[in-house]
Automatic annotation (TrEMBL), chain A:
One GO BP: GPI anchor biosynthetic process
Name of the protein described by the UniProt record: Phosphatidylinositol N-acetylglucosaminyltransferase subunit Q isoform X1
Listed GO MF terms: glycosyltransferase activity
One Pfam family in the UniProt entry: Gpi1
Keywords per UniProt: Glycosyltransferase, Membrane, Transferase, Transmembrane, Transmembrane helix
Automatic annotation (TrEMBL), chain B:
GO cellular component: glycosylphosphatidylinositol-N-acetylglucosaminyltransferase (GPI-GnT) complex
Chain's gene name: PIGH
Pfam annotation, one family: PIG-H
Family: Belongs to the PIGH family.
Lineage: superkingdom: Eukaryota
Protein name: Phosphatidylinositol N-acetylglucosaminyltransferase subunit H isoform X4
Membrane-crossing segments per the record: 36-56, 62-82
UniProt keyword terms in alphabetical order: Glycosyltransferase, Membrane, Transferase, Transmembrane, Transmembrane helix
InterPro entries xref list: PIG-H, PIGH-H_dom
Pathway it works in: Glycolipid biosynthesis; glycosylphosphatidylinositol-anchor biosynthesis
Length: 581, 158
């Protein structure tokens, strides 16, 4: 089998020395992590490797020698290098050699038979694969299909060859801590040997994050304790809280903030990304809310809105009255039952009249309420949108009431009709057996049943028309609310930090690798360049999207149509934890 | 060493297959697809602009013409960037894996690498397309849960 040697590009120009890294026997590949330069004392090298092995649980050993000279190595150097092979015994022993200033590399891997016969036996073909150590260290592999029952811990032994390479480099951070300015006994060359990278701002932020997180976590726990107190659990209040989407949104945000500022460290990279995504999402939300607030105040829109609200409500009520008058006449040329029509129409008209009086009663307080609501936008744009959705729901409450009345009437009628239709045919619904059975009725039962059936059939168009009109209105309002909720969900769940990372540092999120064949000469080993293949945007969004409230309609189009036909009430927004109707 | 042969695809366009052997353990196959011709480009542009002009004579709104130009440009860019494949390369590296690269006409390259451990088999599959039967090469991937099952069939050379 061909042996593979993963060589970091930063060591390609380093001076001669020993190759240090990990040998993976299952894939016959050697991952070179660093180069130890002459002069060194073998005992100290072995000590250093033992330390690193203990700190990182990676089997770091000496893999071979690296030679970077002007011309072909002299005989004495050759023997010296081979002598090293006897000190640090490793099967197979790699000997990489490169002429300074040229692109030709040579590579040998030899197996020692034992101390008795020093003849190198069995030289294998070696393939050199160059990789960028810093990028591989920072990147995170996303395998194509992650099974739900597989833990993150068992990816090392059973993983594919490339995941093992990534894992080795990522866990060997202890080896990369010393740079060439250190006075230690052993001189190493790796990606950080020019100096350990750090940034003052990052260090300060890390130092300040501890106390700040603690303080904020205390504050948030106080707030959540206050909101969980018994007063809010009494029946009317708890019912209202569960129906308003604003409260749901606030609760969601509170949970997210608690998670971000909790003092526990993130256990794995996925949790860290989730925290970062939540933080960026909250910050963006607040920024958008403040922009909205400043825009509203600059144009004094709140005053204009308050002035325009009452006339708009009046106008809507007037339109509804016109609609009812039209229904009470001969709508679309259909002939209605006069008496029922008048009853229903007057009932709904009176309802509208009550509603208008209520709105007029509230009119002096509208501006103050709107001003306070506008102030809540500084908690975030999503909160403002939720409040808007709630205001729409409150203002169109009468449409909701009409829909419920119409639906209940229609539902009763349909049930009555279906039962009497069965009687008409001589059948009965058997509750015990849950099926339709034949039944012999008395004559007077049949007579009254048929009479009632005829009455209901002839009253059907009237009720059906009212039901249709109010259902359409209700669906319109539900669509508008739905769009607002969709926007809120989008802001809540979009993983902006991950998308930004994919845009600016594409090597951090890797879907895989890609290889490029470098210049090749016959007789020399094959050289490949391994680059990171970044994750496509759709997979980034899919993997890192944040969980939302989950207020999505649970039924399909078919069941929706069925419910509409039979007059059952539709509840499009099922909050988390509510029972299904 | 290089080797070039020419074939034709199912629509009659000319394909060129290039075979390169870098070393005993590394082989590369490069398939070039027929290029976009000036004739087809002119035909599509003329149809779109004639339709837009027809709409313009009906509606007397000059926005339609500028919208048509915009749509043609965007459509062409989108087609070159997302749909039209210029050439595809298959790189086989012994004991490492198989890499498939598609380069689009706008220069975009999309690469997929499959490790050798995941490959179960390489087969020639038949498919019925319109009125004829076509053969295509595909790679069968192992299912991580079931050792004898197949999780994915990956066709090569779109």
């Amino acid at each position: 089998m061909v042996l593979k040697a993963f060589f970091p590009t930063c060591c390609a120009s380093a001076d001669s020395g020993l190759l240090v890294g990990r040998w993976v026997p299952e894939q016959s590949s050697a991952v070179v992590l660093a180069v130890v330069h002459f002069p060194f004392i073998p005992i100290q090298v072995k000590e250093l490797l033992a330390q690193v092995q203990q700190a990182s649980q990676v089997g770091v050993t000496v893999l071979g020698t690296w030679c970077h000279r002007r011309q072909e190595p002299e005989e004495s150097l050759g023997h010296f290098l081979e002598g090293l092979g006897a000190i640090f015994s490793h099967k197979p022993w790699f000997q990489l050699c490169r002429e300074r200033g040229s692109k030709s590399w040579s590579c040998k891997a030899t197996h020692w038979q034992g101390p008795t016969s020093h003849a190198a036996s069995g030289e294998d073909q070696v393939m050199l694969i160059f990789y960028d150590q810093r990028k591989v260290l920072l990147s995170q592999l996303h395998p194509p299909a992650v099974l739900p029952d597989r833990q993150a811990g068992d990816t090392t032994a059973s993983a594919g060859g490339l995941a093992a390479v990534f894992d080795t480099v990522a866990r060997s951070e202890a080896l990369f801590q010393s740079d060439r300015f250190d006075e230690g006994p052993v001189r190493l060359s790796h990606w950080q040997s020019e100096g350990v990278e750090a940034s003052i701002l990052v260090e300060l932020a890390k130092w300040a994050a501890g106390p700040v997180c603690l303080l904020l976590a205390c504050l948030l726990s106080l707030v959540s304790a206050a909101s969980a107190c018994r007063v809010f659990k009494l029946w009317p209040l708890s019912f209202i809280w569960s129906k308003l989407s604003t409260c749901e949104q606030l609760r969601h945000r509170l949970e997210q903030l608690t998670l971000i500022f909790s003092t526990r460290k993130a256990k794995n990279p996925a949790q860290l990304m989730r925290k970062a995504n939540m933080l960026v999402s909250v910050l963006l939300d607040v920024a958008l809310g403040l922009m909205l607030l400043s825009w509203l105040h600059r144009k004094d829109l709140i005053g204009q809105l308050a002035d325009a609200l009452i006339p708009v409500a009046d106008h809507v009520a007037e339109e509804l009255q016109h609609l009812l008058q039209w229904l009470m006449g001969a709508p679309a040329g259909l002939k209605m039952n006069r008496a029922l029509d008048q009853v229903l129409g007057r009932f709904f008209l009176y309802h509208i009249h009550l509603w208008i009086s209520y709105i007029h009663l509230m009119s002096p307080f509208i501006e103050r309420i709107l001003w306070h609501v506008g102030l809540s936008a500084c908690l975030g744009l999503t909160v403002a949108l939720s409040i808007l959705s709630d205001i729409i729901a409150l203002l169109t409450f009468h449409i909701y009431c009409f829909y419920v009345y119409g639906a209940r009437l229609y539902c009763l009628k349909i049930h009555g009709l279906s039962s009497l239709w069965r009687l008409f045919r001589g059948k009965k619904w058997n509750v015990l057996r849950q099926r339709v059975d034949s039944c012999s009725y008395d004559l007077d039962q049949l007579f009254i049943g048929t009479l009632l059936f005829t009455i209901l059939v002839f009253l059907l168009p009237t009720t059906a028309l009212y039901y249709l009109v109010f259902t359409l209105l209700r669906l319109l309002v539900v669509t508008v609310q739905g769009l607002i909720h969709l926007l809120v969900d989008l802001i809540n769940s979009l993983p902006l930090y991950s998308l930004g990372l994919r845009l600016c540092r594409p090597y951090r999120l890797a879907a895989g690798v890609k290889f490029r064949v470098l210049e090749h000469e016959t007789g020399r080993p094959l050289r490949l360049l391994m680059q990171i293949n970044p994750l496509p945007y759709s997979r980034v969004v899919h993997t890192y999207r944040l969980p939302t409230c989950g207020c999505h309609p649970k039924h399909s189009w078919g069941s929706l149509c069925r419910k509409l036909f039979f007059g059952e009430l539709i509840y499009p927004w099922r909050q988390r934890g509510d029972k299904q109707d | 060493m290089e080797d070039e042969q020419s074939f034709s695809d199912i629509c009659g366009g000319r394909l060129a297959l290039q075979r390169r052997c870098y070393s005993p353990s590394c082989l590369e196959f490069c398939l070039s697809c027929p290029r976009i011709t000036l004739r087809s480009l002119t035909a599509v542009t003329c149809t779109v602009w004639l339709a837009a002009y027809g709409l313009f004579t009906l509606c007397e709104n000059s926005m339609i013409l500028s919208a048509a130009i915009f749509i043609t440009l965007l459509g062409l860019l989108g087609y070159l960037h997302f749909v039209k494949i210029d050439h595809e390369t298959l790189l086989i590296i012994d004991s490492l894996g198989i890499q498939m690269t598609s380069s689009y006409a706008s220069g975009k390259e999309s690469t997929t690498f499959i490790e050798m451990g995941e490959v179960k088999d390489v087969v020639i599959n038949e498919a019925i397309y319109m009125q004829k039967v076509i053969y295509y090469l595909c790679i069968l991937l192992k299912d991580p849960v079931e050792p004898h099952g197949i999780s994915q069939v990956v066709p090569l050379f779109q």
